[in-house]
Amino acid sequence: MKRNICLLPFAASLLLACTGTGAQTLDAQRAAMRVAIDNAERGQFDAAATAGLRNHPLYGWLEYSALRRGIDTVDTPQALDFLKRYQGQAVADAFRAAWLPALARRQDWPTLLANWRPSNDPGLQCAELNARLATGKADAGWIRDAQALWRSSGKSLPDACDPVFAGLAERGGLTPALRWERIDAAADAQQPGVMRAAARGLPAAELAQANDYAAFVDKPDARALNWPRTERSRRIATDGLARLARTDPDAAERQLPQYAQALALDAGQQAQVRYQIALWTVASYLPDSARRLAAVPESAYDERLHEWRAREAMARGDWPSALAAIRAMPAGQRGDSRWRWFEARLLEKTGRAAEAAPLYRAVATEPTFHGFLAADKLRQPYALCPWNPGSDPQTRAAVARDPALVRALELFRIDRATWAAREWADALSRFDDTRRRLAVEVAGEAGWFDRAVFALKGPQEMRLYALRFPLYHDDTIRREAARNALDPAWVAAEIRAESTFNPNARSPANALGLMQVLPATGASVARRIGLSGYGGAASLYDPDTNIAIGTAYLRQLLDTYGGLPYVTIAAYNAGPTPTARWQSQRPGFDPDFWIETISYKETREYVARVLAFSVIYDWRLNGKAVPLGDRIAGRNVPASRGFACPAVKDGA
Asked: What is the C-alpha to C-alpha distance for residues 181 and 274, in angstroms, rounded to an integer?
């Protein structure tokens, strides 16, 4: 095989040979820029050797890589020169965010103040406050700013904030009242360590009480029964019991009455604890779920608990109670296509089919999982109303030439996702809605498909289906789907849900490539199917290899779970152990009820999403779809359901 020497580690002369003159295209320079940045991050930046890249749009990021590597030794003239040359660009902001903490570490306070920009980063905020403190600028304004930071959160702040708060205390700015304010906020955030830290400096008697409060939030104990009957004691007791309910709802329920009586917890405070007791019981469908849900006053219910009440009743097959739970939801929540579908289903299950019909008709106008189910119920086409706004070629060309967008796309192509997102955000900050949509289109043509997921918004833009549901590697998808007797629309939907068609995707769990295959799974499946040329985890970044392994694994799971795609999809996301638990808990359940009662929110939504995406990819691949009910049940039937745009309200 012929090797591209520009992809290999190189000496200076080799780099010059690869980069050539400034007239070379970005495509020709891409490999050299990738390696140059990698080298710079290892401390091997050579300005002379990279002279051929000096006019490249990413040269600033190459310089940034070198400067970031030695950020604690970058001198001020060098830093200021960089900031001046790249003023207004994302790379300058990235450098400043790294340089200012370095200035703080070497206590170059005047330079830090001279180059400060407002920030939401608490660490940078504390660096700036430290600089003002050290340069004699701890005036009334400094005290107000330091107090605002102290009040800003009940959670832990960076160590760099410790000198700020010490200075604030020295100046009388940390009064006992202010310390108690942070203690209260930390209790609400269930952060006993922060409570203890905030209490230091209180008078002895108050310090003892504050530490007792922190101990209770950490682990409730009977000493609290003798606390003073103050509103603060009641608040802390509520916070501590609510925290306990997350890990041991049984213990929280047993202890609540004695603390309620001893401290005179009001109805609202008891409801807060009962809410958490119910939530952390029902999330696992434990036996006391219904009773504990009933113990929560209606006034304490929010959308989350309304949903769980409906699911809990469904999981028991208590259709009247499930229907009542849905009808108790707020109007906005109840109007979601999911809950209108289940309201109709539960009406049918309780013998009121006539009342269900108008709900099915309404839901069937929506291009969602439950909307497609409703269309199946009514035997009508699936609702899909693609939007094609068109564009002015000159405007599109101008968007494609935007320097920040050019840099974003190049960074994406060399797998610098974080930097690419910075440049993307910078570009979009200057675009109107039309240019934002065009930027998504340009990004999609470059293979950066997830921009359509993150940047499109509103009902109308949700109808840009070609952008939101890209289709690449379709020959491989069709071939491997046929080899494994799978529906290619399902395979495409899995890829869209897993990686949005990014072959270089890597999850925090180290799942790799288009179908997010774990290396151990990839090796096992490759051996089983005799995949020649499999070279370990790196092979999973190859689209053909990844799809071959991913589809074979889907087939393996499908066989394991009795040919039921909806159970297979759950197992693909959550693994075999929870899937086995859900099967044993609700054997014989209708697929839609089984999916809705999955314990894990991520998996519950994932299964519905993949099935809905399958319908849309059927549209993209075939122009018609396998009926969703048949797809869910694993019935091998031809694509026969058509698509139509129903008469809907403007913008739907």
From this structure: 25
**Could you give the angle at the alpha carbon of 65 between the alpha carbons of 63 and 68, nearest 5°?**
105
The pair of three-digit structure tokens given for residue 35, joined into one six-digit string: 């390696």
Cα distance between residue 33 and residue 18, in whole Å: 10
Of 251, 192, 259, 255, the closest CA to residue 224 belongs to: 259
DSSP 124-188: HHHHHHHHHHHTT--SHHHHHHHHHHHHS-SS---GGGHHHHHHHHHTT-S-HHHHHHHHHHHHH
485 phi/psi in degrees, rounded to 5: 55, 50
Rounded Cα–Cα distance for residues 187 and 236 (Å): 6
Which residues 6+ apart lie within 8 Å of 573 measured at CB?
602, 603, 606, 607
End-to-end Cα distance, the chain: 53
Q: For residue 11, is pLDDT > 70?
A: no
Mean pLDDT across 145-161 = 96
Distance CA 414, CA 53 (A): 15
| pLDDT tens track for 30-67 | 999 999 999 999 999 998 989 999 999 999 999 999 99
For residue 17, pLDDT over 60 is answered with: no
Q: What is the pLDDT of residues 408-420, one digit of tens each?
A: 999 999 999 999 9
Q: Are 133 and 158 in contact (CB under 8 A)?
A: no
> What CA–CA distance (Å, rounded) separates 150 from 167?
12
Q: Classify residue 394 by burial, with Cβ atoms within 10 Å: 0-12, 13-18, 19+.
A: exposed
Taking the mean position of all CA atoms in its chain, how far away is CA 206?
42
What long-range pairs does 201-206 form, CB within 8 A, spacing at least 24? 201/169, 201/174, 202/176, 203/176, 206/176, 206/180
Tell me phi and psi for residue 154, to 5 degrees: -95, 5
What are the residues whose beta carbons fall under 8 Å from the beta carbon of 68, sequence distance 6 or more? 41, 95, 98
**Which of the four pLDDT bands, split at 50, 70 and 90, describes residue 278?**
very high
Q: What is the band of 13 on the pLDDT scale with cuts at 50, 70, 90? A: very low
CA distances from 629 to 316, 433, 563, 566, 643 (A): 23, 38, 14, 11, 16
Q: Which residues contact 461 (CB under 8 A, 6 or more apart)?
A: 387, 437
- Residue 25, pLDDT score: 79
pLDDT of residue 642: 97
Instruction: Give the model confidence (pLDDT) of 89-146 as tens digits.
Output: 999 999 999 999 999 999 999 999 999 999 999 999 999 999 999 999 999 999 999 9
Calpha distance 105→108 (Å, rounded): 8
List, as one string, the DSSP characters of 533-586. T--SGGGGGSHHHHHHHHHHHHHHHHHHTTT-HHHHHHHHHH-HHHHHHHHHHS
Beta bridge partners of 382: 643
Whether 358 shows a pLDDT value over 90: the answer reads: yes
> Cα dist. 403→398, 409, 425 in Å?
10, 10, 12
Mean pLDDT for all residues in the chain: 94
Rg over CA atoms, the chain: 30
Helices 337-349, 369-378: crossing angle, 10 deg rounding: 40
Q: Looking at 381-503, which runs of residues are DSSP E strands?
A: 382-383
